[in-house]
Amino acid sequence: MLSFFDKGRRKKALAVAVAAFTVMALAGCSKEQQAPQATLVKTMEVIKRDTPIVYDYTGFVQAQKEVNLMAQVSGQITGKYFLGGEKITAGQTLFTIDQRTYQAKVLNAQAGLASAQATLIRTSRDLERYKKLYEQNAVSKQELDNRVAEAEQAQAAVDAQQALLENANIDLGETNVVAPFDGRIDTNDLSVGNYVTAGQTVLATISNTDPVFVEFSLAENEYLKLLSAHNDAGGASLENLTIVLSDGSTYSEKGRVDQVNRSITQGTGTLSLKAEFPNPAKILLPGMFAHLQANSGTVHDAKLIPQRAVTELMYKKFVYVLGDDNKVSMREVTLGPRIGRLWLVESGLEGNETVVVEGINKIKQGSEVKPEPMTEAELDTAVSLKES
Q1: pLDDT tens string 238-279
Q2: 53 contact partners, CB below 8 Å, separation of at least 6
Q3: For FRET with 101, which of 116, 221, 261, 322 sits at 20 to 30 Å CA-CA?
Q4: Please, is 354 exposed, middle or buried when counting C-beta atoms within 10 Å of its C-beta (0-12, 13-18, 19+)?
Q5: Host H or E run for residue 7
Q6: In this protein, which residues make up the domain named Multidrug resistance protein MdtA-like C-terminal permuted SH3 (predicted)?
Q7: Ranges of residues in the chain whose predicted pLDDT is under 50
Q8: What distance in Å separates the CA atoms of residue 337 and residue 342, rounded to the nearest whole number?
C-alpha cells in the first residue's frame, strides 16, 4: 500500500512541475509578443525647386473718401433727385428741404439790418452836428461823447444784423443739399415727406470709388522683408500688389502701399497698411473682401516641406527627420512664407532629408517608425493617420 501511495505522490508532483513549466513558457511567449512595434507614419522627401515667393493677406476694400451727409437744417424733405446706389457728381443736387421757414428768417434779418442801418445813418449825422457845435463851444464834451457812443452802438447793431442775415442765408442754402465730391451714393430709404433734424439725421452716405483703399495687416518681420523686396521684373513688392477677388478672379489693376500705421499693434505684433488701387470700372466696392498678394521674387532651389509636418514647442518649430535605421530625430527649423500647403524652409534642413508628415503625435525623439512614403499630390487627398 505504501509503495502505491508513493508512486501517486510522484506522479502528482511531476504533473505540477509540468504545469508550472508550461505557465512560465507561456508567460515568456507573451512577453515576446508584447515587444514594442515600429509606429506607422507617412513620410515625404524634402522638395527642392525654384519657387516664387508670394505673401498672402486678407484685406477689405475701403473708400478713399467717405462721408455721412448730415442734415444741417431741420424740416421736411421736399425733393429727392437721385436713385440709391447710382453714381453722382460733385455739386449735384441730392435733396431739398422745406425752405419756407428759412426764407422768412432771411426776410426778417434783412428788415432788422435795414432798421439798424437807418439808426446808424441818424446817429452818424447827429455826431457830425455835435462835433461842429463842440468846436463852437455850443455843447459840452459830455454831450459830444454821448453822441459818439450812440454812433458806435448803432454800428455794432448793424454788424450784428449783418451776421444774422449771413446765418439766415447759410441756413437757406443748406436746404439745397448737394454732393461734396464725385462718388457713389448708398441706397437710403429717406424720401420726400420725411422730417430731418439738423445735426442728427444722416441723409445719405457717399463714397469715392476711384481709387479705393484695401486695408490689411502683416507681421513686423514680413513688413521689413517686403520693404526691400522686388518681384522678378524688378518692381518693388509693396508697389506691385495684386488682388484675388472672392470668385477666384485676379483684379486687372496693380496697387501700391499708400499708408502705413504709425506703430505696431500691441499684443499682436502686426502692422496695419492701406494699399491704393485704381478702380476705373468701379468693380471694387467698399466692404468687399480682397485676397491681397505681394510677390517678392523667386527663390532658386527652395526647400519645401508640408505644413502639417511641422510641430511647435516653446515658440520654436520642429520636424521629425527619418534616419537610415528608421528612427526619427527632432530638427529645429526656421520657416519662411507658406507656399500653398507647404512651408518654405529657410534653415535647419539640407534638402536631402525625409520628414514625417503624418503620425507625428504618436512618436518622439528616437522612436522607431515604419515609414510609408507619400507624394505632394497626396497632400490634397490623403487622410491623416489616426492620432491615438
Answers
A1: 888 999 888 888 998 999 988 888 887 777 778 889 999 998
A2: 295, 296, 297, 298, 299, 302, 336, 337, 339, 344
A3: 116
A4: middle
A5: helix 2-33
A6: 302-362
A7: 1-2, 4-5, 23, 30-32, 383-388
A8: 9
Tell me how far apart the alpha carbons of residues 175 and 88 are, in angstroms, rounded to a whole number.
Answer: 19
Question: Angle 238-63-91 (CA atoms, 0-180°, nearest 5)?
Answer: 135
Torsion 243-245-246-249 (CA) sign: negative
Q: Say if residues 207 and 183 touch (Cβ distance below 8 Å).
A: yes
Cell numbers for 164: 444774422
- Judge whether 72 and 196 are in contact, CB under 8 Å: no
pLDDT tens, position by position, 213-229: 999 888 888 888 888 88
Task: Residue 66: name the closest of 214, 186, 189, 245 by CA.
Answer: 186
Size of the chain in residues: 388
Predicted confidence (pLDDT) per residue in 96-143, tens digit: 999 999 999 999 999 999 999 999 999 999 889 988 888 888 888 898
DSSP string, 73-90: S-EEEEEE---TT-EE-T
Q: Are 158 and 114 in contact (CB under 8 A)?
A: no
Q: How many beta carbons lie within 10 A of that of residue 137, not counting itself?
A: 7
Strands 75-80 and 93-97, by their bridges, are: antiparallel
Report whether 188 contacts 204 (CB < 8 A): yes
Q: What are the cell numbers at 169?
A: 442765408
Per-position DSSP letters for 21-54, written without gaps between them: HHHHHHHHHHHHHTS--PEEEEEEEPEEEEEEEE
Q: Residue 262, class by beta-carbon neighbours within 10 Å (0-12 exposed, 13-18 middle, 19+ buried)? A: exposed
Which residues, 6 or more positions from 91, have their beta carbon under 8 angstroms from its beta carbon?
178, 179
Domain locations along the chain = 39-51+299-379, 55-64+208-298
Domain 55-64+208-298 coded CATH 2.40.30.170: yes
One of 3.40.50.2300, 3.30.420.10, 2.40.420.20, 3.40.190.10 is the CATH number of 39-51+299-379, namely 2.40.420.20
Place of cell 505696431: 264
Q: Is 365 helix (H, G, I), strand (E, B) or coil?
A: coil
Q: Which bin fits 31, alpha (ψ -120 to 50), beta or left (φ > 0)?
A: alpha
